[in-house]
Every structure is written in C-alpha cells, then in structure tokens.
C-alpha cells in the first residue's frame, strides 16, 4: 500500500532554518564570551596598572586643582616639538623646563618632571594645590597640568627674562640689564608677593624656598615668585609653645609643665618685644635653646595634614586693608606648616660657619638648663642636644658641615668673577694660600671628624681676624661650644661618617661622582699637572638645595644652565626630609622644623643682600685677605658695625645707584636676618618700608656702629668696678 505523503506540518522548522539559528546562537555566545573575556582582561590590566602605580606615588586627586586646564601628554609633546632640546629654557633639580606653544598659539613654559619619586610627586601636588589655587600679579601663573601614568607636567605662563639667578649671575652681559632701579623693583615685587601669601591668603601660605632661581622676570623685568613645591599652608594655633618667648621664667614654667616628649599645648604671644629692642643676650640664648628643645620634643606630636583637606582662599587682595586687619588682629598666631609629609628636618645652621651669630650660642647652657629638671628630663635634654646636632646624620647622611665644606671647596675657582683680587696675587702665592685652607678642608674630608673640626676652626679663624675687638667674648663662647661638641660628639661622628668614605671609594672606582666632591683637589691637581686652569672642572658656583642636591652651571643647557648633582640629589631626596636651600633657609627652621612666615622673611633678607651686592651668600675668594667677604651675611654685619654698609653694593653698578635706597635695603635685610624670628619685621612692614610709607625700625643694636649708651654705661660700670 502506497504511503501517503505526510502533509507538511505548518509548525515544524525546516532543517536549514535550524542550522542558521544554531550558528547565530553560537556566534552570539562566542562573541559575548570574547567581550566578557576582554573586559576582564582590560579590568585586570587597569587594576594591575593602578596598583603598581600606587606603590610608587601618592594617590592623586585630579579634581582638586582649581580652574586648571588638564592637558594630555600628546598635546604637550606636540607643543614642544617632541620635547626638543632647542626648546629647553631651563633645568631645575626635579625637571626640565621647555618653551611650548599650546592650543591658542600662546607661548607657555612647560615643566616636565624628569623622574617620578615620592618627593617629586609631593612637590608636584603641592604646586598644583597651592599655586594652582592662587592668582596674583606677583606669582607666576600656573595654567595647567598633565598627569598620565608616570608622567607629570606643569604648564606655566612664559617669563621671557627667566630667573633672577640668571640675571644676576648669568654669563655675558645679562647682569647689566639689572640696573639699580630694576633691582629695587624686584625687591619690592618679591616683598609684595610674600605680602600676598602671608596676609592675602586665608589660611596664609609660607613659600619656604625664596631664592634667586625662584624669582622669575617677565618682559618688563617685573618679578614673580615661582616654585611652591616646598610651600606650606599655615594653620592657626597648631604650634604649642611660644618658641621664641623672651620670658625665660615663663618658658621654663612651660617647659617644666610639659613632658619632654609630649605635646606642647597653648600659645603665648604677648612677650614679643618691639622690633630692634635690645634683648638681654643671656635670655636670648637660653630662650632659643628652650624653644628648640620644645620644638624638638614636640616633633613626635606633629600631626600630618593633607593640603587637599584645606580650603585655601585667595582673594583679590587689598594690601593696605589686609595689613590693617593684620595689625588689628596682631596676627601673632602661631601655626604649623601643613603638609602631607613629615618635615623632620634638623639641619643645624648653628654649626655652619656662615652664621657666626648662631655659632656663638653656647650650647652647654642648653644642657645645663636641664639641671633644674628631673634627672630623666635632663638626660633627655642632653640626648636631645645630640639628636639635634646629628639628626641629619641619623641615616648615615653627610652632616651639614660636609655640605658647606664641599661648597666652599667648589666655590674656589678662577672662573669666579671675584677672583680679580686673587689674580693680583702671584700664582704661587695663590696656590699656597689656598692650599693652607684647602688642605685642612681636604683632610677634613678625609673622614676624620677631628680634622673636620680643625678645618672649620681654621676657617673660623679667618673670620675671626676681621672681627672687631668687642666680639671677643662671643668668640670665647664659640670655642666653648666647639669644645663641647668635640667632647660629646666626636665618637658619634666617626661612627656616622662613613658616607663620604663610600662616595670616595666609588669615585676612585670610576663611578659617577657629584661634581663638587673633591673638585677643588681635582682642580689643583690638574693645575699642577697641566700648568693652567680647567674652567670646566670648577665652575660649580651653584647653590645647595636640600631637596635637590647641588646644582652647577651646565654649559649644555639653555636658560638657567643649572642641574643637580645627580647622585647626591637622589640620595638626599630619598633619605632626608630637609627643606630649603643652604644659606637661604632660616636658622630656626633648620632647628625646629616648623616653617613660619618669619622663615620667609629671613630668606628675603638674604635675597635682598644678594640682589644689592650681586654676590652669592657664600662665596669663598682666592685670597685669604678677603675671607671676611666669603660669607655675605657676616660681611654685611661687619660693614654695618663699621658704619660702611654701602661697600656691599655691587661694584658693577659703579656709582649709578640710589644710595638712600641701597642703604635702606641693606638695613632692612639686616632686620630680616635677626636670629630671633620675632624681632624680624613682618612682610606688611617690609612693604611699607620699601614704599617709603614707614620708617625703618632702629637697626638691631648688634649691628649698630654706635651701640646704645645703656650698654656703654653698663660696660663702663663693670670696668670701673674691676679697676676698683
Ligand atoms: N615660567 C617660566 N618661564 C620662563 N622660564 C622659566 C619658567 N619657569 C622656569 N623657567 C626657567 O627654568 C629654570 C628651572 O626652573 P625650575 O623651577 O625647574 O627649577 P629651579 O627653581 O631653578 O630649581 P629647583 O626646582 O631645583 O629649586 C629657571 O631657572 C628658569 O630659568
């Protein structure tokens, strides 16, 4: 029986249709699996990337900077023609600055950080958070930034005349463009910039690194300050003790009432003497010591702040109004630097021979001041004394003395314009003269702490020769201090002094060596060998920045022609938390670690002297006859005592300067350089003095050519009594 064909079921799918659906289903499944896989891989990659980046850097919150443009790396790369060397306008310790044309065809300065470390990242963020939030005609404008992976770039307004450093010390005729009027205007501009920071910002901002290379000049030579990497935002009432109280009894009371290692609460600001008021020297010394002790002991209690957590308000600043307000409020509040980093920096200026004022403090007094306290406390103080001297050495670092010795050595070279005097001496004499000092310094470098001490004694004797007679007592104290140091610390020094040894060994093995190390030895060796100087080896007339290391002239770079000694720069930034630049950093900052407005005032004082004199703050000359001029600050003090301050004015200006203005500036600088921060004028007063709206406070009696009659009568009375 023939089978009937089955009628085609309307619902049964045809086989070809089935296959198609299966294929589509398969494709969809595979592609979604692939997409999911890729997503997972992408996610994992980013997770890994961010984790590995986080290990090296501080988390970055790009939303915080105010009104700054965010550039992509490619854009900045194009703007600088792939960071072409011909576009380099300067080199700093942390990065290279390029000229670039961005977006609307305008010229910009683009700073690219060379390496990314915790320190550079911190400074980068500081710059963004602080400078990025400020607008003032006296500050370089930060326009934008770029953050991509480990690339960090900052975009600034372009300053055609670069930095004051180049204008003052650059080669060629650049310094001629800084006539007297321009120099005075620069001083006023820098003062106004600081006035804006200290009084025009709420909370106040402390710059922390005022120096010529951070003062940039626009096309009209108007000065603006830059580089806020080390800046701090001040928080009112965070510091406990009035560190510089004049009232010894009160300080001791406070001191006793506090645990040495505990918190120091409360503030006293009512003991501030009038500017220029003579202070009993004994009290001064002990107070300062107590202050340092207090700050040292309160170190542990330091709180860390994140800059981002603070609301920084800068407003259209009316200088007069602000200073008025400030006068009303007293503006004496002590604050504490705001930082996300611990700033434990006990670089001790007292030991650096450049400030003989500080060297004169008898530290045995500090230790004795513990006598009234409990034995434990006294022991703590003594221990503190040690820590204080050698905190910098805590991790096997070189001590500040080494830096200064290195610097002095590197400064002695014939490329210095100030060698004119030296040239007058016969070459033999010159070599002999230097070798006397240098041998001592070299020997000191040869690891022996005793030798270091001797070498410094030698240097100090040089200064001593030119000291007026009236300073005998001070020198006596200084010796006492030196002896105290020798007795107490030589053992410690010898243990911790291995760093230099290691560096020397590396150098001998042919490794890269910081330029300054032993450069003078190298130089004299070469001179002896080849009979003439080699300028390339000894043009190290840079400056030492605690965060950057040494900088020297680099013939290859355009602009600042400066760079950091690589090895040292890295070692310092990774192992120390020192801040500021040698010779510009205020002594109390080195001792206490608290960055206050008056630290900026001190740096401004040094800057004023540098601008007026056209000299670096530490400048050792060939002839020992002129050794007293090596240290700009002590030289200025000596000139003030002999009533001859105008001798300090840059010889290159000849007679073409305003004598009244020059003497005002020098006297003002001396006021700013007083060792007691509270005696220094505040920035509002400084601006008014410079503008001629206020009289200069009486010159500090210690610099006065005719000390107050009270002192005379006191000494006469003493003489009389001893004669009787
Ligand atoms: N906005 C700018 N316009 C023009 N030139 C600039 C600008 N910013 C920096 N420069 C030049 O680049 C140089 C290096 O500047 P940078 O801020 O990197 O380092 P520095 O302040 O000299 O050193 P450091 O950062 O170690 O203190 C300056 O000396 C200056 O010549």
From TrEMBL:
<dbReference type="GO" id="GO:0005886">
    <property type="term" value="C:plasma membrane"/>
</dbReference>
<keyword id="KW-1133">Transmembrane helix</keyword>
<dbReference type="InterPro" id="IPR011009">
    <property type="entry name" value="Kinase-like_dom_sf"/>
</dbReference>
<dbReference type="Pfam" id="PF00069">
    <property type="entry name" value="Pkinase"/>
</dbReference>
<dbReference type="GO" id="GO:0004674">
    <property type="term" value="F:protein serine/threonine kinase activity"/>
</dbReference>
<feature type="region of interest" description="Disordered">
    <location>
        <begin position="701"/>
        <end position="724"/>
    </location>
</feature>
<keyword id="KW-0067">ATP-binding</keyword>
<keyword id="KW-1003">Cell membrane</keyword>
<keyword id="KW-0723">Serine/threonine-protein kinase</keyword>
<keyword id="KW-0808">Transferase</keyword>
<dbReference type="InterPro" id="IPR008271">
    <property type="entry name" value="Ser/Thr_kinase_AS"/>
</dbReference>
<keyword id="KW-0418">Kinase</keyword>
<feature type="binding site">
    <location>
        <position position="111"/>
    </location>
    <ligand>
        <name>ATP</name>
    </ligand>
</feature>
<keyword id="KW-0812">Transmembrane</keyword>
<dbReference type="InterPro" id="IPR000719">
    <property type="entry name" value="Prot_kinase_dom"/>
</dbReference>
<feature type="transmembrane region" description="Helical">
    <location>
        <begin position="23"/>
        <end position="48"/>
    </location>
</feature>
<feature type="domain" description="Protein kinase">
    <location>
        <begin position="83"/>
        <end position="699"/>
    </location>
</feature>
<dbReference type="GO" id="GO:0005524">
    <property type="term" value="F:ATP binding"/>
</dbReference>
<dbReference type="InterPro" id="IPR044576">
    <property type="entry name" value="At4g25390-like"/>
</dbReference>
<feature type="compositionally biased region" description="Basic residues">
    <location>
        <begin position="713"/>
        <end position="724"/>
    </location>
</feature>
<keyword id="KW-0547">Nucleotide-binding</keyword>
<dbReference type="InterPro" id="IPR017441">
    <property type="entry name" value="Protein_kinase_ATP_BS"/>
</dbReference>
<protein>
    <recommendedName>
        <fullName>non-specific serine/threonine protein kinase</fullName>
        <ecNumber>2.7.11.1</ecNumber>
    </recommendedName>
</protein>
<keyword id="KW-0472">Membrane</keyword>
